[in-house]
Automatic annotation (TrEMBL):
This protein's name: Peptidase M28
Signal peptide: 1-24
Signal is among the record's keywords: yes
Coiled-coil ranges (or none): none
GO molecular function, one term: metalloexopeptidase activity
Residues in Peptidase M28 domain copies: 262-468
Pfam hit, one: Peptidase_M28
InterPro entries reported for this sequence: M28_fam, PA_dom_sf, Peptidase_M28
UniProt keyword list: Signal
GO biological process, one term: proteolysis
Amino acid sequence: MTNMSIRRLLLAGLLAATPLLAPAQKKPANALGAIKEADIKADLFALADDKYRGREGGTLDELRASVWLAEKMRALGLQPAGDDGTFFQFFNLQRTRLTKASRLSIGAHPLRPNHDALVFAPTTYAVQAPLVYVGTGTAAELAKTDIKGKAVALLFSGQPPADMSFRRYLSQVLRDKSAELLKAGAVAVVFVADDRAQNIYEHWDHTYERGRYGLPGDANVAAVTTAPTLLLPASALSWVQQAGQQFTADLRTESFQYPSVNIVATVPGTDAQLKNEYVLFSTHQDHDGVREAVQGDSIWNGADDNATGCAALLAIMRAYKQQPARRSALFVFHGAEERGLLGSRYYSAKPTVPQKSIVAVLNAEMMGRNTPDSAALLGSIPPHLNSSDLVKTALEANQQGPKFKLDTKWDQASHPEGWYFRSDHLPYARLGIPAVMYTSWLHPDYHTPKDEASRIDYGKLLRMTQWMYLTGWAVANRPTSPAREPGFKLER
């Protein structure tokens, strides 16, 4: 045997006995196929069913729906990541409202607070003063009347700017005009509804009757003694204008706490180091509960807001369970979002994983309505942009998957709805954690009993879910976490 033959045999033996050097680690194939429209639809119909009575934050209905979601997570094989080895992180919300002993009257007209007159903020306040009527409250009309020490009545008027809901516009006008009149010396402000405001009066008394919510210690639920702002029905105009009437208020408040809950689960990552970092998929499970009946329906089921987000996260869980990523996936269903982002404020401050280990937050909020080919990614333009890196990944995922036409106007600081500030990504963004929100934005059924499961575009919701998953999958498998935007600062 020649020396060359011996060397060939030795080389062959070495190759047989020694494994080849591993190539650079490839990204694992995703499990996009595990996300199915039929699963999303079934989960959404179940959660937005009347049996959960609208899942109002801080009620047994929210807790019952939360238990259903936790059981779905357990059945899918996810690991609990709440407190004490459970899927749950309980927290208290604080509620302040007017007591039933509160009284209002104008002249000979007694007014039941939040039945005959909407009171826009609970306050402990007593006053008796002359009532003066100033028309629509223009500068010229106010110049004719001494309002110091008096209750001021005026007719609401005005039209909202484009892209602003009338209810939001009404609240803004009442807030700003009341502040102006109180600063000028008024002791109370009484608005009378015009035709458009009358619709708000008829269908939103239950909102103001509930009072205000916050986390314990929040300023907005502390006892206050500020002058009240009221809204009367349009029918009151005929007698409110009468001269010589007294306005009398004896308003009292009460405050108490009760529980809400975040639901938290995880799919651990596969990489020995990166599994200690988390991509957080966020949504909220609560809605508005049982309220004023509209066309005979008093259960506000919140199918788009936000059973769509819940169904999307369950679908993404199925994909991660089938194929875990290098980083861990963390799923958080936030409680009491409709009460003021309370669950996300609580979890972001007291997370069940190290706060610094959360590398990105992908938030699902109302993803199943409006035009089939359009959507929005909030947090994608300044001043809301806190990670160009994360946004680039999300835009690439959109091109890889659904190819939505992206509407950026809802993300602009000048947009009158302030949509960026109204969902659960916000508390994380305030902490500097890269965060974006997936949404198909508002529609006429928003916060009405008409937001039903039958009105959802399930094909669009499937594509929104796929887009969110593909973004998270890319983040979860890349070598480095998304870079944070230097100098990030929100406008408010």
